[in-house]
Batch of 2 targets.
Target 1
Amino acid sequence: MTKKNTPSRNENRGVTIADVAKAAGVSIPTVSRILNDKEYVAEETRQRVHEAIRTLGYTPHTQARRLRGGATMTLALHHPIESPHDLSSVIETSYFTGTAEAASEKEYFINFLVSQLTPEALLNMYRSNQIDGIILLQVRMDDWRVNLLRENNYPFVMIGRCADLEDLSFIDLDFETAMVAAFDYLVELGHRDIGFLTYPQSWHKTGLGPAVRSLDGYQHALSKYGLRSCYREIGLNSVEEGFEGTNDLFRENPELTAIITVSHLTAAGSIKALTQHGRNVPQDCSVMAIGFGGNFASVVTPSLTTLEWSPYEVSYRATILMTEKLANELSSAQQILVPPKLIVRESTKEVT
Amino acid sequence: MTKKNTPSRNENRGVTIADVAKAAGVSIPTVSRILNDKEYVAEETRQRVHEAIRTLGYTPHTQARRLRGGATMTLALHHPIESPHDLSSVIETSYFTGTAEAASEKEYFINFLVSQLTPEALLNMYRSNQIDGIILLQVRMDDWRVNLLRENNYPFVMIGRCADLEDLSFIDLDFETAMVAAFDYLVELGHRDIGFLTYPQSWHKTGLGPAVRSLDGYQHALSKYGLRSCYREIGLNSVEEGFEGTNDLFRENPELTAIITVSHLTAAGSIKALTQHGRNVPQDCSVMAIGFGGNFASVVTPSLTTLEWSPYEVSYRATILMTEKLANELSSAQQILVPPKLIVRESTKEVT
DNA sequence: CTGAAAGCGCTTACAG
DNA sequence: CTGAAAGCGCTTACAG
């Protein structure tokens, strides 16, 4: 096995604008102009410079350009979570890919921040010119990040939304509409005894949007149809909690004919519990989930009827929004509410 | 609604090292030294400078530091895929979070590249100093990215591995071992008629590691136990393909008592097919999946026995490896093979 | 222990 | 149409 020499920095790296200028027999500014399609340049000069660029394999130094240009052309996507290890159960891959795709289209870099951030650290991201803007995930009704960024007038965009939205741009899932839509659908099928397994109490207490707004929507739906309240606040990301929540619900309300959950995981637990107690889904009880779709829905047996959003699309749009804001292309704050899509699969059925 | 003025760049941004120097009544290099804990500085001066830094809210300009320092302190993670939209079905979130976490610990930035990359574009990432190194995903036995990077002597690390590994650093899942381990486990339970739903033929043809090595491991296992071959190459990411693949397999081999799949999705399809044909899992037939774990396994009913790896850990380690390589902390190429962990759940059982 | 000088690679007025 | 000069914010020898 021949041992090769592995230098830490590469030789190719050395080609600078000065090299190109020398090779083409012109000055550095001239090369720069040609690179940036500025002003008038003699066609013959342009040819010569391009020739030099090609033979030298020159590419402008991104960092230097950015230093000169003032903008970092870098965005951050922040999800506050104690343990990044667990993020996979909280957020879908498509959030990353949607953001990454939009950023790359707009020639921005994107940094994913998946940790608890101190106010100091957040400010430093801007102050030290690491980022031009940030996209906030998991926004609370009263969110310190929003307050801080707003005070300091640093550009940001939310996926989600806080309480005071004046002049703020966001894209959010419309949970209120989703809840009512779920009831519209189930009531239409003849259901009147509907149980709801919602977000954990801790989410509600800390003012997390989905928790607060789902419950609001739930109340609307109840009064719209004159139904009585029947819900449990349970953990989001475990089949077990769905299992136990469902058992709980049925112990006190054996008459239920439908269950709405806010995660595919708890829906799966719900189905497990029902099946185990001899209730067939959807024959004896319908189950539906509100949330992100993806592959989960069809893995479950029976496959899940859902009201879902595309995290890819939502994050893509949020990122485009961020770049537009930075380019001053937004005349006013953009506030976008995305309605969910109803996808009927096998887990729901009319009451017999 | 009061209309606020939204300047595009922020005022706080202006604080530079020169401001600090002036405020503290010292020269710029002195501030720089203090910032970087260099050499001897009079304690009294240090105090004064720190004081100025604090009151001005100064943070060093990252881009400028990088320009001066030579390194971009930025890494890329590349997954080649035609449609980034579909990435969520191919790769787990934990890949991103593991990478992001390691990068942030080492004070690197990380850019996720989730698109088809041209050779030209890949070289440009280095030439234009956008990145110091790249982490390659979905590596083929003969991978143009590897060849190109190697030729140009640009630093990279693989999650996966190609055929010629001389002097290359990687961390890969040990699929051969996994296959044999699956058979060890099932044979121990008394199974001798075992069907295998493996990666699609296209993967095998393009030389994708998991496809090639799973099949190799499969052959080893067969000859180890003197069993006959019985497998199908099917699509990875759909419940349907698992469903149909299983039906296919049983049509010609009704005697099968166990199925091994390489994805949770196809395993779910497998269970669906078996159940639908009146075969109880695991009573009449065991099903197990080789691959990443996560929440999928317990969503399925019965929950899946798996041989699994943690994508968080694998990507975390790969990223650390990359930073070590860049810091020249690696005396030789690191080649790490990660064995899977067997997690017995409900979907497997001894032959009765 | 500290400052004046040069330079990282580029771009943008400013003259010609 | 093109070049000389200044500067983006920082760090690193080099003198003192």
Target 2
Amino acid sequence: MKRSESKSHCPINFSLETFGDSWSLLIVRDIVYFGKKTYGEFLESEEGISSNILATRLVTLEQKGILVKNPHDTDKRKEVYLLTEKGLDLIPVLLEMAGWGARHDPETNAPQSWIAAVYADRERMIRVIRDTVRSGGSIFAGQNSVVSKLEMD
Amino acid sequence: MKRSESKSHCPINFSLETFGDSWSLLIVRDIVYFGKKTYGEFLESEEGISSNILATRLVTLEQKGILVKNPHDTDKRKEVYLLTEKGLDLIPVLLEMAGWGARHDPETNAPQSWIAAVYADRERMIRVIRDTVRSGGSIFAGQNSVVSKLEMD
DNA sequence: ACACTTACTTGCAATATCGAAGAGAAATAT
DNA sequence: ATATTTCTCTTCGATATTGCAAGTAAGTGT
């Protein structure tokens, strides 16, 4: 079975085949939560992805329509990776996985105030995150982060 | 890095390390959506998991507290695999992944009426699914399926 | 007793991953 | 101008994981 062939058209299987490996969702997380956008920023993440794996994942995520690659405005060495609308649709998946992990990892790093805020007004939070990320911001990092808008940390 | 060591305590990474491989969530899906419970039933799924991979996944899912293995009531050859409360907590994750897959796979098998029903009253649906699966039922299969309770298909 | 079913295990080839090193282009420092 | 650094990405060999086919042991049905 080639990687391009799908094993079934179960929607959960489709999702797993699109982003269900060890690294793809961590790249999406880096964009959504931390506002990362370049190869070098993804490489620095604490999970320590190898440079060759990162390169292949960026290619496949772009092929699958989750990311788009654009030239950097001022630095011609850099590429800027952004989420497509299809990629932004992963935000609810990320939130649920973050909620499950925060609940079940006794050593979690997740700020409980943030997890609680998501559960308190989920639909609104999804809209705010989506708008923020679409305009280049993120949940935790940068000037216009979602948490700074909500005046919490 | 051994599989047992965690790369970080990011809640999303914790989730990925727990169930973020190609097969684990498909096993959980088989239980939640189709009421499967035995090794042989999991083996028959259309994605075609190999027997050795299935065996290792059942062990690790049990070690991680997602599943419990019990002897079958009447047939001593069989083992019955059930979700723990921790495993039932994956239902919202499954629903979001199913929603994303159904939206973005043009050839999806997902019944649109079911997807719509989940989005229409998400919190209630999660409770109904959880109660149904906890008592041995499933979303689509069997006498007391969630869809038969809702009188839809 | 005998054949069949069920839950796994084993061996081996194919594939994917990891980790370190390097290549080429563009930016920056001297 | 030249040298050094930065940045994206590639290459290579070792290791780990997966997939496939076959086999084992215990339990069941007749």
